[in-house]
Design goal:
There is one protein chain. The protein folds into two domains: about 10-75, Arc Repressor Mutant, subunit A; about 105-150. The protein is about 50% helix and about 5% strand. The chain contains six helices and two strands. The protein has a two-stranded antiparallel ribbon. The relative contact order is 0.13.
Length: about 150
């Protein structure tokens, strides 16, 4: 079985935003987690939920969650995916949408975690944020460091 290559965070965000805009423009339902995960090259449906949470925490979308569906509103246009939330989700969302500030200590922890071959989910637990936010910060740090990061 061939392994899939997951896209970098900024590419994943672009792919998912295109999917969500298309669904909102066509008045379609919001794509499910497994459809999103497949589109970004991830094997686990949780990657779909994680990128949605990242886009939501970034302010690019607003999400209304039901027990079996979600409605996404595109912040830039105000357009929404089709759906009606008849029974709101009765669970606490996994992803906290709170202000999070990167410090040099958190950067050090993130880079040390990556150097020790931890994934972004594990690194996120160490620094206290979402794996997608860790991946985005890692991309920023690598871009700033250039060849030194390789």
């Amino acid at each position: 079985m061939a392994t899939r290559e997951i896209l970098p965070l900024h590419e994943r965000a672009k792919v998912v935003m295109r999917m969500l805009r298309r669904a909102a423009d066509r008045n379609d339902v919001c794509p499910g987690n497994s459809v999103i995960a497949t589109a970004i090259g991830a094997a686990s449906p949780s990657a779909g939920a994680n990128i949605i949470a990242f886009l939501e925490s970034s302010g690019m979308i607003a999400v209304e969650r039901g027990r079996t569906e979600r409605i996404v509103t595109i912040s830039a246009t105000g357009k929404r995916t089709r759906g009606t939330i008849t029974a709101p989700a009765k669970y606490r969302t996994r992803h906290k949408i709170v202000s999070f500030e990167w410090t040099s200590a958190r950067d050090d922890i993130l880079m040390e975690a990556v150097a020790n071959e931890l994934d972004f989910e594990q690194a996120g637990h160490l620094v206290g944020t979402d794996p997608e936010i860790c991946a985005a910060r890692f991309d920023e740090l690598c871009a700033a460091m250039g060849r030194q990061a390789a």
